[in-house]
Amino acid sequence: MNDTEDRFTGLKPSELNDAERQSVVTLAMKLLSIKHRAGKTLSSPAETRDFLRLRLAEYRNEVFGCLFLDNRHRIIAVRELFHGTIDGASVHPRVVVQHALEVNAAAMVFFHNHPSGVAEPSRADEMLTRRLKEALALVDVRVLDHFVVSADESVSFAERGLL
Question: What is the pTM of this model?
Answer without folding.
Answer: 0.78
